[in-house]
Structures are given as structure tokens and as C-alpha cells.
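ugh ok fine here u go
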Amino acid sequence: MKLFQQLLVAPAALGLMAPMAANAAELNINGVSDFAASGTQVTSISDFSDVQPNDWAHQALSSLAERSGCVAGPSSDKAMTRYEAAALLNACLDNVVEVTDDVRRLTNEFGPELAVIKGRVDGLEARVGQFEAGMFSATTKLSGETVYVIGGVSYEDRDKAGKSDDAVTFNYATRIDLDSSFTGEDLLKTRVSVGNFANTPWSGDAALERNYSSSDKLEIDRNYYQFPLGDSITATLGAVVRQDDMLAVWPSAYPSTSVLDVMTYAGAPAAYNLSEGAGAGLSWDNGNGISASLAYVGSNGSDASKGLMTKEGADDTTLQLAYTGEGIGAAFAYTSSDKKSGNYDAWGLSGYWDPSEAGFVPSISGGMGFKTLEKETATSKDEFTWIVGLQWSDVGVDGNTLGFGIGSAEGWQDKTGYDDPVAYELWYDMAVSDNVTVTPSLFIIEKDGDDKNFSGGLVKTTFTF
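structure:
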């Protein structure tokens, strides 16, 4: 028990004296009132009149305080109340190495007062424990992240593009995760997100992975329950769940810090479309690196006019087969997307190699994807996508990471006059502390013709808590 907790309880304990049965020989009422009113903590003994300097208890307490070094001993020429003496004894008992006859006699003498003080201290410790546990139950863990982004975009030919250079903007996105477990093996995930990235290039042409646009309003971004079925199968069920929440493996090590959103789909944005809504999934892991996952998401599952698995709704079903080993991983994914705007089938093949001691050798991630439309149109064709990402760890300073990515800015389509769109990004992740990172980044995006090319730069600061 901490000393300050013990001593803080002493004045509080005195407030209990009025209803207690005590005779005049045991308690000086005036002294107790004065002591309670003063609010003084027992780090030295003040002037009261129950235990006199010539009493054996006064001398025994002085000797005990000197030997144990728990608190300053009583003044040799000043009296103290019985509860003040009991508080001093209580503070010193934790430091007692040997229980002497004097300690036994003191404990017996001040037993009633010690019982009151200990009872109040135990209650205080319980309240302190509840306070330290926070507002949430013992089954729930809170964590969060806030991202600041300062930057802007410049278009190569603003007249032809019909756009002006964007001003530098300062935006944020915050998310708070509440992870609860009731058995130690399950997970109830609730995520609250908020951000102001609307009306910026960060949610449009140069979409960032960590942009979030809710017009500064809190929104539920995740709400699902995950639990084991036996030793090797995990089930997921949720009203707001994303495709990748139900997959056993994410087949890319790039990027460790996210910049352009187009770089975060393992090279197959149609197969890994990260659809979100009501859904359910199963994943199986054999314990030796081989896994299989089946995930379903109904994006309009909460809308009674559209619903799940209807002609009016939007449904995505994904099958993934994957292998992971020490520093390596690969996966094949197939997604069937059934939407009113158009149905398609998509495939993805992605993998990574992440050496444990890279040195100048970077980790390498790559992937490619194919999208086949049920019905092509003049502007919508079958697509091919790809990405290659490199990361060097401990560049300049231990904990800092340098990254470079190149890949499809959007799906490559086989049609006359269509230039292959490519995106490039270069970033440097600086670990300011365990909870703060600063990431400057430059990027170039080449789309359909010079009039749609643009470039930009930003500084992203990430706070985790």
C-alpha cells in the first residue's frame, strides 16, 4: 500500500468517529475535530492530547518510526491522538522486518483504530483501482490514432484539365478502437471515426489511404464480432465489417505507412476492393502457414429498400487461398461483385518478401489483378492492375523507414487512345517517439494524357494512443 494512500485516509477515517461507540478515555473529540478540519497528512505528528510523550506507546512509536524509516517520528515533546498514532503505526507496519513485543503490543493497543483506518484504506484502494481501469470494463481495451496531413497538389496543365492548383490544406482523421474480449479468444470490435477530408484532392484525384470524410461528425466505422469455431476456424459476423477484416492474410508488406490509397490494395484493387457493410466470413488456418478465407459483404445491408443479396443491393463475395512463412507470404484471391451498376469477376495474385535483417536490401511486395466485366461498354472495359513496393528499414536512424512504390493509378484498359496510368510515391517515415511518426512524401500520378497528370507533396503526422 502506498504511503500517501495510507496517510490520505487518516483524515477521512476521523469522520467516522461520530457514530462510533467510544468513551472519553479512548478518544479526544476536540482533537479529532481539529485534526479532521486541518486536512493535514501524517508525515509528522501534530499537537494532540491522547498519547502523551511520556507514555510507552509514544516512545515505542518513535522507536518504530526511526527503525523502519516509514514516516517522520512523533515529536518528543508533543502529544498525539489515538487515531494519529494508529495512522503512524499503519504506515510503518509494511516496513516491519521483525515483529517485536513492542509491535505486538502497539497492534493490540490500537487495534480498533487500525481496523477503521484499514477498512477505509481498502475502500480507497478499490476506488483507485476502478479509476485506473478507466471507464471501461476489464474486458475492453481502448486504442486510437490521429493523423494530420498538410500538403497540396499541382496539375500539369490546369487549363486543359479545367482545374486550378489546389491550395495547401491542413486536414485530420481520428479513429478510436474499442476491442472487447469475453473469453480471451474472441473479439468484439467497435471503431468510431471522424475526419474532414471532404472537398480536398486527398479524397479525390490523390486519394490517401488515411483520408476520412465525415464533415467532423463521429461515425461508426466498424462493428463486428469475431470468434473461434474449434481450433482452426475463425468466424466473423458484423453489421459494419470490411472485406479484409475477414481474411486470414493480407498479402503485402507495403506500405508500412500509408500514403496514396491506390498503393494499398496489394496490386489488385478489384479483388481486394475493401467493400464495407453488413457481412459474415470464415477463415481456416492449418497451423503451418496455409489458410483459406471466405468473406461476404452486403454494402446496402442496413437499407431496407435494397437489403442483402437482392437485385437492388450491392454484394461482394471473396475467396482467398494463402501461404505465409518466415518473412514471406503469397495469396490468390477471387471476388464476385454483384452490383446494380455492373457485375464483375476479379482475380488477384500478390506476395511479399521481408528479410529479417535487410540492411541495404529492402523488403519487396508485388501484386497484380484482373477485372472482367459482365458487360463491357464504350467507357468501361476489362482491366489490369499491378504494383511494386520497396521498403528499407532503419534508414538514417534506427526505426526510420524509406519507401518507394510504383503501380497502376487506375485500371489499365484495352482501348484506343488510353494511356497506361501510373502512380509513383516516395516517402520517409521518421519515428519521433513510440507514439509519434512524421512522414514527408512526394508523388506523381500520370493518367489519361498530359492534361490529367499531376504531382504533389505532403507531410503526414501520426499520433497513436
